[in-house]
Each structure stands twice: as C-alpha cells, then as structure tokens.
C-alpha cells in the first residue's frame, strides 16, 4: 500500500524538549540468567563479560527440580518437594509451566490437581484432602508457584553476587503474550527486576556465541535449535541478522520428551517381570529404575537392572534394545523438525548450525538421528541442560550494562525510528537493533490533490500507532505542487551517524524542495526506559496489530471513496460514461462505505465495504481509462497504446509497493 503523509497548516518544525539524562539504576555485573524449565530450572551468572557459570545449591547440584510442595502446610521447593510427591500427589505441584498464562478452559491435558471452579484465572487447590477436609480450599496460582521456584534461584544468585540487580528469564519461543506476562509476573513476585524475557532457542544460540559467528559483515546466519526436555519437544529455526536473532518458525510436540522414554522402558521391564497390574509402589520402582537405566545408557553400552519389588532378577539391558524401544518416539521429533524447516521455508543445506538443547539430547540415538536428518553434526560442546541458562546469563550481563567482546550495545539502534503516516500509523524507517551508522530512505506520496505541504512527524518506539510512540520531532515540507492523489513523490531519508545523531531529510522529487532537521534520539532515554518501551510493545503486540489494521483500513477506504466520488462528480454530463442505475449503485456503495467508516471498530467491515465499492466501480474506471487513452492517443498505433498501458500498469505496481531502501553499512 502506498504511504501518504497527512497535511496540516503549520509552518516551522519543532523538536521535542530534551529531558534530563537519567542515571542507570542497574548494578553492572549483578544480574542473573534463569532457565525456568518445565521439569528443571537453573540459574547462571556471567559477571562483566566473564564465562557463564551455573550456580549450585548447598549440595553442589545445578538442577533445581521445578517442583513445589504445599504438603503439611509448608512450602518446599525442589528435590525435597519431589521426594514427597508420591505421598501427596495433589499438593506437590510439578510442571506448572504448562499452566502459565492459561485459563482453566485451556487445560486439555491430564494432571492430578484440583482446580478452582473459575474459568478465567487458573488456580490450584493445595489444601490437604484429608487433614483439611471441610475447610475452605487453599488456592495457589501457577504464577505464585513459579515465583517460589524463582525465589530459590534468586537466593543462589544473591549468595554468589551479594545482591541481584535483575534477571533475564527464558521462555519457550512459542509462548504467547499471556504466558510471557505470567512469567514476568512470577519474576516480579519473586522480587526480581525482569530485564527481559528471552526465547529459549535464542538463549542457546547466544551461549554458543552464534551471534558473533554469522557470515558476512552484517552477521547473517540460519540455525536450528532442537530442544528435547523431560516432557516437551521444541524445534526452532532462527535467523541471525545484524547480530540479532529472529525466530522464523517454531514447532514440536508439547507432550513428547524424555519422560516418554522412561515410560517405554518401564513398560518393557514390566512385561519382562510379567506384571500386568503393578501396585503404585511397583510402578514407582520401575519408573525410577527405567530413568536411571536410560541415563546410564547414554554413556554405557549395557546396564544391569534389577526390580526388587517387581520380582525381576538382575537382567542386562543393551543400548540397542533401548534404541528399539524409543525409535518411534525419536522419529516423531524428526518429522516435526522437517515440518518446521518447511514452515520457515528453509532448506537444511542453508543452515549454518544445529544446536542441541535439553537433557534428552544426551541419548546417542537422538544425536544420531538429528545428525542424519539435518545432514550435519550438531553443536554439543555445551552441556545441553545448561546451555539455555548460560545464554540467559550472558544476556542479563549485557543488559546490566557490561560490555562484552563483539557485543557493544551502543552500536545498535535501541528503538525503531519512524514516521507518522495517514491514520496515525507508524512507518518504521530504521528498525530497532540495526547497527549504526545507518541510513535508510522511503518514498511517500500525497493523499489528496489539495495537498501542498506535508507534515513530518518523527517518532521512536516499537508500537504501531504514533500516539503510543515517543515523539522526537515535527517539521513541515511546503511548496509541493498540486498533483492528483498518489502522484507526488516525497523521499524521506533517515541518517543515523556513529554518534547516534539522526538527520531526517524530506525532498519532493519533482520540484526538489527539501527540508531537514537533526535530532538525538537517545537523548534523555535510560537503558531501563528503552527496555520498558520494548517490553511494552511485546505486551501490546496483539492489540497494536488490530489497531494498525483498523487504521490502515480506514485510510484505504477513505482514499477509494475520495477517488470514486471525485470521478463520479467529474464525469458530470459526459455521454455514455456512467449510466444512471450504475451511478445509483456506486453512490449507494459509497454511502455504505461512509456508514462503515462511522461505525466500524474493526478492519473487516471496512475492507468489505471498500472491496464492494471497488468492484462496483471497476467497469466505470475502465471506461474512463479507455476514454482517456482514446482522446490522448488517437492516431497512434495499437502497439504504442499497449506499451503505454503496460507502463501505466508498472507505475501502479511501483506505487503499490512502498519503496523502502536501506543503504547503511
Ligand atoms: P526441561 O527443559 O523440560 O525441564 P531438561 O532439559 O532438564 O527438561 O531434560 C530433562 C530430561 O532429560 C529428563 O527426561 C531426563 O531423564 C533427561 N536426561 C537427563 N540426563 C540424561 C542422560 N544422561 N541421558 C538421557 N536422558 C537424560
Ligand atoms: Mg528446557
């Protein structure tokens, strides 16, 4: 769609009042990175550019089971909670990550918990079903449960660093706004300042330093991150561009993981023990033995297992036997991986690397099949269950203000810079995270032929509407010749130099009139505020998208109504160009458009009304065009007319695509 800039009266441009610079609140090197996992969570630090390091508990263990027990009226987190899970299945909560940001109605998987009757927010009753019988329920929310886990990890951080200034918490790439918000809330309840949430695959890529290994000067690359955990499988395709990762596609299976390997092996062992109806105690034994055997088989070719309670004497189990059991499960992950590559429109040969994440990628068969499927050896130097936490720690350290080799935050544009266009919509000219110096330009056009000036409003931020962004400067470009709609050509260029000084220049291409201003976009913005603005846009992504669609639909319908109305008015008495009934129908469609414009709060009815008007008036438009051609080209050959038509069409297409060009280096 062609972008138009609104017309206003005023003359001089005005620069936003600079604010006093804010000192940074963040303590450099005091930030932690957290992998808040479904089955396990970890915390890592990487103070002031140091190598990341996992923080251990008092017993020297890295992994904190993501389990919280409320049994006996006490809140216990981790291994101690796990230990009492069998006795108190309804009071020991595990895998609450699956409930985050979900309403009761969204829960379509099995779990042993008692949920509150409300459907909007999800809460779990953790009162003792026996001791508290007759008492009112004791509800906890998944956010609170996650907060308890985060508190334990933050505590490890405080012990190591003396204080914790903030955290980066990882979330699956597919998490939606509600799930992200819930995770941030959990951080806040745990007393953490959440600098930002980071997608798990991006964290893994950061841990491998893939952001610095990209091809070419802009740092380009394509990566697959294969994450097989305890209960979930996630595959993500990432694109690296200009040192920034973008998630191109995600896929996987939210009910497939290492726990399924345990179950497959346990079932085989029960069969061997000829137990078709095991007791809970026997079941617990076989599951524990199966998991231990599985993990041992990642190193050894054979293991010996014995099931005392199930009456199975020592038997040998080979890796080949285990592989045969889990083969079908692993193949499912491979199929999902291929489908996701397809979604991302990426061929496996284009990939620059495959990263393995999650404890279950230690299984040799998994590694072998992944290698075969992607046609390359996956990256696995970093412990697959720590790699996400490492990446979070690196990102946290950067956001706390540390400078790292190869990553100098000052070199990127912290917030997008753009221009307000018709309807209050922001057209981003320089995207966030672009490396500076950079220049970009885009051509805009006029909306109506009455327009002899254009008002330029330079804004900063990630939101879609100018009102929600930070206003940087306004100026006027006057002296534009009167031209039919969409015929004027105003080129606006944004140049951001190495000192982050922005020069915006607008030039009318026919007359050459030009106007420009200078502004310092980072002036008076603290790192905190930048992060806030970015997070804000994430929080509003969905409503922004709708608001932008609506605003665009309004502009489009207004443009079409104006054009058709003008044509109908102009045609006046010209014979044969517009029959009375056709005129009636077109005017009715215009009235319908105007009614839609007055009422609609959604893009769809506007677009429908506009499309109807376009369809109805299409024959009329064609006749006008033919007539114009006949009068303008009488005496020319058919070939000449055809080539003129083709030219006209091309021009139309060029107008359709809004011509943006980035020429930075
Ligand atoms: P999540 O991210 O879902 O919390 P993890 O990445 O911590 O999960 O992975 C947990 C899974 O990894 C469990 O099923 C566990 O049995 C499995 N796992 C851990 N170590 C090994 C190993 N050495 N061999 C095979 N599987 C392992
Ligand atoms: Mg994980």
TrEMBL record:
Protein name, entry field: Chaperone protein HscA
Domain of life: Bacteria
Keyword Metal-binding: no
Originating organism: Enhygromyxa salina
TM stretches of this protein: none
SUPFAM superfamilies membership: Actin-like ATPase domain, Heat shock protein 70kD (HSP70), C-terminal subdomain, Heat shock protein 70kD (HSP70), peptide-binding domain
Similarity section: Belongs to the heat shock protein 70 family.
Gene Ontology biological process: iron-sulfur cluster assembly
MF term (GO), any: ATP-dependent protein folding chaperone
NADP in keyword set: no
A Pfam family annotated for this UniProt entry: HSP70
Keywords, alphabetical: ATP-binding, Chaperone, Nucleotide-binding
Signal peptide residue numbers: none
Record-linked Gene3D superfamilies: 1.20.1270.10, 3.30.420.40, Actin, Chain A, domain 4, Substrate Binding Domain Of DNAk, Chain A, domain 1
């Amino acid at each position: 769609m062609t972008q138009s800039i609104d017309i206003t009266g005023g003359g001089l441009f005005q620069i936003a009042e600079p604010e006093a610079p804010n000192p940074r609140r963040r303590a450099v090197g005091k930030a932690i990175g957290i992998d808040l996992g479904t089955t396990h969570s970890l915390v890592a630090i990487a103070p002031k550019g140091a190598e990341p390091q996992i923080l251990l508990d008092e017993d020297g263990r890295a992994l904190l089971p993501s389990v919280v027990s409320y049994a006996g009226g006490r809140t216990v987190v981790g291994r101690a909670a796990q230990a009492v899970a069998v006795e108190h299945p309804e009071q020991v909560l595990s895998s609450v990550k699956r409930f985050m940001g979900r309403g009761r109605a969204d829960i379509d998987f099995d779990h042993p918990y008692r949920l509150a009757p409300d459907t909007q927010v999800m809460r779990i009753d953790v009162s003792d079903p026996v001791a508290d019988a007759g008492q009112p329920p004791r509800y906890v929310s998944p956010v609170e449960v996650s907060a308890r886990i985060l508190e334990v990890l933050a505590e490890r951080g405080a012990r190591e660093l003396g204080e914790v200034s903030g955290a980066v918490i990882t979330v699956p790439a597919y998490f939606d706004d509600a799930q992200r918000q819930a995770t941030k809330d959990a951080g806040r309840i745990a007393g953490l300042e959440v600098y930002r949430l980071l997608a798990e695959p991006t964290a893994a890529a950061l841990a491998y330093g893939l952001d610095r290994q990209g091809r070419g000067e802009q740092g380009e690359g394509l990566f697959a991150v294969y994450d097989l955990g305890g209960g979930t499988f996630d595959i993500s395709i990432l694109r690296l561009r200009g040192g920034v990762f973008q998630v191109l596609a995600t896929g996987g299976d939210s009910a497939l993981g290492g726990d399924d390997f345990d179950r497959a092996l346990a079932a085989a062992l029960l069969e061997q023990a000829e137990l078709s109806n095991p007791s809970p105690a026997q079941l617990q034994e076989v599951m524990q033995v199966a998991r231990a055997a599985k993990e041992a088989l990642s190193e050894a070719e054979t293991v010996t297992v014995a099931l005392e309670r199930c009456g199975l004497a020592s038997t040998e189990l080979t890796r080949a036997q285990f592989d045969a059991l889990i083969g079908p499960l692993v193949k499912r992950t491979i199929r999902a991986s291929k489908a996701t590559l397809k979604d991302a429109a990426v061929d496996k040969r284009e990939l620059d690397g495959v990263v393995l994440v999650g404890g279950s990628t230690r299984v040799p068969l998994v590694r072998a099949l992944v290698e075969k499927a992607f046609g390359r050896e996956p990256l696995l130097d970093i412990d697959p269950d720590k790699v996400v936490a490492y990446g979070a720690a690196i990102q946290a350290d950067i956001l706390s203000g540390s400078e790292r080799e190869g990553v100098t935050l000052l070199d990127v544009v912290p917030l997008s810079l753009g221009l307000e266009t018709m309807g209050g919509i922001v057209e981003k000219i320089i995207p966030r995270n672009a490396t500076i110096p950079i220049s970009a330009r885009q051509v805009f056009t006029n909306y109506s032929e009455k327009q002899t000036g254009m008002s330029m409003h330079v804004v900063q931020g990630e939101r879609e509407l100018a009102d929600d962004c930070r206003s940087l400067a306004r100026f006027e470009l006057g002296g534009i010749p009167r031209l039919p709609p969409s015929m004027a050509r105003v080129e606006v260029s944004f140049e951001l130099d190495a000192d982050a000084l922005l020069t915006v220049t607008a030039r009318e291409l026919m007359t050459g009139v030009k106007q420009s201003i200078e502004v310092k976009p980072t002036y008076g913005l603290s790192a905190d505020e930048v992060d806030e603005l970015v997070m804000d846009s994430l929080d509003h992504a969905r409503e922004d998208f709708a608001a932008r669609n609506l605003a665009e639909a309004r502009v489009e319908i207004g443009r079409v109504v104006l054009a058709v109305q003008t044509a109908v008015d102009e045609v006046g008495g010209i014979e044969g160009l517009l029959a009375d009934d056709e005129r009636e129908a077109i005017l009715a469609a215009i009235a319908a458009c105007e009614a839609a414009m007055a009422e609609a709060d959604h893009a769809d009815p506007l677009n429908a009304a506009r499309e109807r008007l376009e369809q109805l008036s299409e024959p009329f438009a064609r006749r006008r065009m033919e007539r114009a051609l006949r009068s303008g080209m009488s005496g020319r050959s058919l070939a000449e007319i055809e080539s003129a038509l083709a030219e006209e069409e091309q021009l139309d297409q060029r107008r359709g695509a809004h011509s943006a060009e980035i020429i930075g280096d």
